[in-house]
Amino acid sequence: MQKKVEFIAKTQEEALEEAVKRLHISSDKIFVNILGELPEGLNCEALIDVNLTLEGKKYLENILKSLNIGYQIEARSVNGEEQIHYIIDSYENSLLIGVKGKTLEALQILLRNLISSYTKDHIVVTLDIGGYKSNRARQLEILATKTAKEVASTKTPVKLQPMNSFERRIIHEKLSDWRDVYTESEGEGENRAIVVKPR
Fold first, then answer.
1. Element (H, E) at 151
2. Buried b (16+ CB within 10 A) or exposed e, 61-77
3. Residue 195 to residues 171, 180, 182: CA-CA distances in angstroms?
4. In this predicted structure, what is the pLDDT of residue 81?
5. How would CATH label the architecture of 134-198?
6. Lower CB density within 10 Å: C or N end of the chain?
7. Taking the CB of residue 92, how many other CB atoms lie within 10 A of it?
8. CA distance 75 to 66
9. What is the bridge-based pairing of β-strands 30-38 and 41-48?
10. 196 CB burial (10 A radius; 0-12, 13-18, 19+)
């Protein structure tokens, strides 16, 4: 559900000004509904009126245009915008991905923050650039399987290199059904890493 507020205002113009203040968003993205008249003024309901998927796409386009990068963006929503997925392809994929995917991760955080500013609901927002995440997921699944086999045979825990939450989730999910090993995350922030342990 997109954010909304209720308040009293003397005029429709004042209602729109108040809505902008309360919702922290430009007036062109707000719909003000007058619910009725009260002795003290108009009973107003203001809500954010945007297509979340489209807003995210425009946001990414503005970033890429300001960087003077040619691009293609695919945006799709699932289950009425419960999940929104963006895929960028450009000649500057490596620049947009960054070292170990750090720039890609930062762009995804900015995108999530933008979408969450419009709605109260928890929406899953993902961004992939040039197939980086899907390729990385395949590499991590291979690493998880190889490590699990090693731990199962040696009965010795193995600590993997630090990873971001997306990468750790892939390892956890890949090994969740294994009977002879289990996974735990240890450490804080950028040093958080998975340890694969024997059961």
1. helix 132-154
2. eebbeeeeeebebebeb
3. 10, 14, 8
4. 81
5. 2-Layer Sandwich (3.30)
6. N
7. 16
8. 20
9. antiparallel
10. buried
Residue that has been written with the tokens 């890493």 in this structure: 193
Query: Which fold, 52-130?
Result: GMP Synthetase; Chain A, domain 3 (3.30.300)
pLDDT value of residue 174: 93
73 strand-pairing partners: 88
Q: What does the alpha-carbon distance between residue 169 and residue 105 come to, in Å, rounded to a whole number?
A: 15
Mean pLDDT of the chain: 92
To which H or E segment does residue 126 belong? Answer: strand 124-129
Residue found by looking up tokens 């970033």 in the block: 63
> Which residue in 133, 130, 135 sits closest to 164, CA to CA?
133
Backbone φ and ψ for 137, nearest 5 degrees, come out as -60, -45
Residue 126: other Cβ atoms inside 10 A: 14
Residue 156: band (very low, low, confident or very high) from pLDDT cuts 50, 70, 90:
very high
Residues 61, 62, 64, 65: is their CA dihedral positive or negative? positive
Nearest-angstrom CA–CA distance, 51 and 151 = 48
Q: By C-alpha distance, which of 87, 86, 93 is closest to 67?
A: 93
pTM: 0.78
